[in-house]
Amino acid sequence: CTLFADETGWRIKGNLWWLWVFGTEYSAYFSIDKSRGSDVVLRILGEIFPGVMVVDGWGAYTSIISDQQSCMAHLLRKIRKFYAKFPELKDIARFYVKFRRIIRDGERLQGFRKEYGEEKFLRRFARLETRLEELLRWPNPDNVLRNIIAKVRRQQPRILTFVRHPGVPCHNNFAEYLI
After folding, report:
1. How far apart, in whole angstroms, are the C-alpha atoms of residue 34 and residue 27?
2. For a disulfide at 49, which of 26, 59, 66, 170, Cβ 3.0-4.6 Å?
3. CB distance 128 to 159 below 8 Å
4. Are 7 and 58 in contact (CB under 8 A)?
5. How many other C-beta atoms are found inside a 10 Å radius of the C-beta of residue 3?
6. Between 118-135 and 90-111, two packed helices, what is the crossing angle to 10 degrees?
7. Is the pTM of this model over 0.90?
8. Half-sphere CA count of 86, side-chain side, radius 13 A
């Protein structure tokens, strides 16, 4: 089961609350809460979710045990914003292109899993993970790129999850659509 989750600000009598959604292609559960914390996720889903959660990268979701995929559209957008703010820092653009290529290669690998067979798929997946790890060891990054790398590293366990699970996307657009 793939569960898409997201949260967004929701005003109630001028105060900031949060609208949460947890949805599949067949159903959705909405909750409005004062909290944007892990207490909401734990209360709604419990401590363990047996499927794959596709989330926006917000830390509250990491409070439960589950396979999780962070939204790569969110992460790539953040990197592009850094580059727009610091266009003279060409390493940001190079990092972005290499990172995006890893994600796209992951999408292709996910699609060819049956054709490749499990052994070839696992070898190629291991290479993809190695490429990501090597990218995060960027030599001599400036302070801005160091910040970007730290953001990507925090999401690293949830960057390539989608590749291992047929039909799971690398983004949480569906949850955004539900909200």
Report:
1. 23
2. 66
3. no
4. yes
5. 20
6. 170
7. yes
8. 14
